[in-house]
Amino acid sequence: MDQNQNIPNRNDRDRSRGNFNRPKSNKEWKLIERMVMSAQDEQRKSRRWGIFFKLLTLGYLVVALLVFTAGKWSDGMPNSGKDHTALVDLNGIIMADSEASADRVVKGLRAAFKAEHAKGVVLRVNSPGGSPVQSGMVYREIRRLKQEHADKKIYAVITDAGASGAYYIAAAADEIYADPASLVGSIGVVSDGFGFVGAIEKLGVERRVITSGDNKAMLDPFQPVDEQQKAYFSSILGDVHQQFIDAVKEGRGDRLKDDPTIFSGLFWSGRQALELGLIDGLASPGQVAREMIGQEEIVDYTPQVNPFDAFVGKLGVTMADRFMAMLGMGNIRLQ
User: Fold this and answer.
1) Are residues 66 and 163 in the same domain?
2) Rounded to 10 degrees, what is the CA torsion of 65, 70, 71, 77?
3) Fewer Cβ in 10 A, N or C end of the chain?
């Protein structure tokens, strides 16, 4: 018997191998086709959803950009066509690039005084004070606007607090009102900081300062206090305090009682402030609009701050505070 009879030839092997890889029926081919088509559909859907979410993200970014820059394209000032009471807010700590900055408050006041149908202006005050420079700028602008618009009165109305620099500003108004429980006054000046002389001695740290000028490193917190430099800085605070006192006396006139504690830095409740002549009465902003100005409808002229500007402003203020701390002194504040 031929030994090669039981050995499949090459063609038989190829056919056998081909038959092994080929589907046995049309049903199997259709199943494979459906699987391939399904995979392609899933890929197309995945791409479409990817494009959708990318467009959604882009739209969100565009809207956010418009919100952040809205304040740069429009001053946001109202334009009421009928008689009303104009309202401007003085809210928060008074300092540059804040909601209570001189630029922002003055912008609102100018628009309020200029508005043809505004029959009076209410400056709604809720602030513990802040920068004497910013406070003085608003004070002087109110005095100027009163002269320019002699037929339009401005009323400062204190809500929670009208202290320090906030009272400095309020003193420029024609009249001041507050709630019986408001905090009013605090006519004084403060600058605070820290001394680390004992701490660096315990740590064995040597402080090295090189200056050109005997007083360039004045009040360095890592050096003992120099009494002459301390006296000099105290004289600066005293001068700023006197400016504050003069402004209050100019604004309030003979309505102030002859009481030495008024300018000592103390503060009082609204009811106590009325007895001292620091305010003219007890009333809310709505009451003043209705009863003093005679226009119950209130239109807000406070410029709006967009979130981007607020963030940048806070960043700038923080950097300024750090710089003052490096000089060894805190910010000078009306308090």
Assistant:
1) no
2) -170
3) N
